[in-house]
Design brief:
With 87 residues, the protein is mostly helical. Helix 1 packs antiparallel against helix 2. It is elongated, with a radius of gyration of 18 Å. The two termini are 20 Å apart.
Length: 87
């Protein structure tokens, strides 16, 4: 991986983390009516609620990460092919 690709990948990773966090917060609020998802250490919340929140959060983060990584890989591949055709 070239330095430019590494830098872009790092930036896209940070951006995707922020996007996933924001998306999870919206999904959780729509599903539960609560502003904050339960923390595993919050003893006021039940096991089911904590585990459901963690499952949803993991699925959203995994989906966003895969989508961003895939889009980045396709972009770099497309640019590499274009450069080969030019040169």
């Amino acid at each position: 991986m070239q330095p430019v690709e590494k830098a872009v990948s790092l930036g896209m990773g940070m951006l995707s983390g922020s996007l996933a966090a924001s998306l999870f917060k919206r999904v959780w609020k729509a599903a539960s009516g609560q502003d904050d998802a339960p923390d595993a250490g919050d003893l006021q919340r039940g096991w089911a609620e904590v585990l459901i929140a963690a499952t949803i959060q993991g699925a959203i983060f995994g989906l966003v990460k895969a989508a961003v990584h895939r889009a980045g890989a396709q972009t770099f591949r497309r640019r590499a092919v274009e450069e080969r055709l030019k040169g």
